[in-house]
Amino acid sequence: MKNLAAFLGIFGLTLFFSGCFVYNPTADFVKQRYTNSISYFNTFYNAQRAFDEAEEEVIAAQKEFREKPVPGRQFSVPSTARTKFTSSIEKNSKVLSFYPTSKWVDDALLMIGKAYFYLEDNVRAERKFLELSVKFPESDLIDESTLFLGRSFLRQKKITEGVKRLEELLEKTIATDENIAGMAAYELGQFYLSQNNFELAEKFYSQSLPMVDDEEQQAHTQFQIAQCLENLKLYEKAEAEYEKVSDYEPGYTLLFSADLAKARTLVQREKFSEAVEMMESMLEDTKNTEFYASIHFEIANALLAQGDRIGAMEKYRYIDTTFVRTDESAKSYFALAQIYERVDRRYDSARVYYGKAKSEFPSSKITQEASQKFEVFTKYDTYNKDLIRFDSLIAQTKRQREKDDSVRTAASDSVSLQLKDSTITEIIDPKSRKATKPVKKGEAKKDSIPPFDSTKIKAQIAKDLAFKQLLDSLQRSIIRTKFELGGLFFLELPVPDSALYWFDQVVMNYPQSEFAPRALYTIAEIYRTIKERPQAVRDSIHSLIISSYPSSPYAQESRKILGIPIVEIQKDTVIELLDRAEAFADANDFIGAIKTYKEVVEKHSSSPLTPKAMFTAGWHYENSIRNPDSALAVYRRLIARYPSSQYATVVRPKITEYDNEQKRIEQEKQKLIEEEKLKEQKEKEMKESALKPRTAQQDSMHIPQTIQPDSLVKPHTVKPDTLSATPREKI
After folding, report:
1. What does pTM read for this prediction?
2. How many domains, in total, are found in the chain?
3. What is the distance between the alpha carbons of residues 22 and 80, in angstroms, rounded to a whole number?
4. Which stretches of 329-441 are assigned E, i.e. beta strand?
């Protein structure tokens, strides 16, 4: 205690003056100071005790979390620890309010900041750490406060500030406080690992390893070093580093993970027999029962890497049926789907297995990719079914047309035949002619002019026109679907050969369609990015676009690529609509602007400017009229309809961030519900325990506890490493 001597002096004086019965102002003053001191010390003591107990619970919970990891599950501070952190904050706040000049104010500020940090209230934590650095720049707690401040910045995505604080702290303390320096280096390693910068992550982990004084922390750091080397494809070095994990004090889960990872590096080095033998021996150890699914999955991966596709598929199916609803089961479905997609080219089976993978274990790392793949192959399946349906409708329409034509032709032939027979009879036997009345001059002879049914002719013309429009619509749907298939194989699978096949179909069979110049331009892009072709080949394609489709937007782009002057083209309807929409926006008529942009989307869906119109409509929803729900809906449609456009690339992170935030909120709600249920269960158990009758033996053994006098005045002494040792936290 910083002012323990002063307190003992005051306490002695109080005892001396307490025996006087005559009123003495000095004695009353000393007694008041004594009372205040007791209150102060008890408040601070209780605050620190609550904080220490809560921190110990967090450290224990983190250790248990590492020993029993569940894929996708985030670490959560125990509810009892949360209550104690909150209590510590309240009591330390009283210290700051009523004793602002105390020598323990910096201790109170640090405790409050750390409590907020553990409670994931990073903004308030940041404020307290900054307050400590401003008010007490010479405090011996500054370094620990800076460590937590840097972690708080990183949690808030204030990357530059967080990295800067930690790097400065590392440089400052590397020669004075190795443990703090080691923790700063470890946090930097954690950050760079989250960014997939494995080189920097390995550098800081290696720097941290010899400085941290916690062997369990060292074991985890050693494992992370090996993981970085494995991700850098330095498999031999990674194997050696995994071997070193056992040199420290790892939990059994970490030790097992290191051994399994070591077998994985053997597979990468093509030592298949040695790797499989090692993993099969792990299956024989009953201590690994809970890890059997992981071992079988790595064996399946080894078989696949070895070229034993059949054996690998059998092992993946074994995992699916034996370890249902596990992360390994989901990964096995995903692996099977990839084999069907990439090796067998059986896209229908790939779609089925991606569908199983995405729903098998929702918190698995593969779930998001499996969902995306499932959507892609669902689109592929839909496009193929559409082509079959369109072809069937065209054939059915043509058959109906031929049937109608044959009926009409038969009727026409019947009338002609009757007329012909009548004429022949009259020529052969003139007497067969019927007598007719003489016709007056200017009067038409009855029945000499064939009857004219204008209604039937109009109906027939309308029918012919409808038939032509139907065929044109179906034909255009076929062209669009083939173009979409090309885009699917180019952008989302990707399989460039299949993409070229479908784009060639559009260009060769439908050269006059609006999709032809787009298909040609995309072919040139494939030759530039994926299946590289000489510049002369690409230039010839751009020249063909310019000569065949001189007014298209793709001709303009081709002119830019070839260095040919841009041709001034008369504005089309789309550009006029966009200009009109911009005029509405300039006049602050954002509703009118949005309606005009929607008109572009509805009437000109194939225009290259349509994604821009859809994006701008969403932007106005988001920023001009503050309607985020509508903006979100527009952005989602933009990604669905034009996934490869630059505008989809812009909004996709927004959608992802929104979805992640909604997921986080839902997880927080679920966490609160679970904590409330746990609290209710404990209260129920306490009530039931209180209602149970006590036995005579229990009564006789019950001895009321007495409070030792020293406990009222002697604050809890903090061990030197309690505040400096920091449990591993997820950034």
Report:
1. 0.67
2. 2
3. 50
4. none
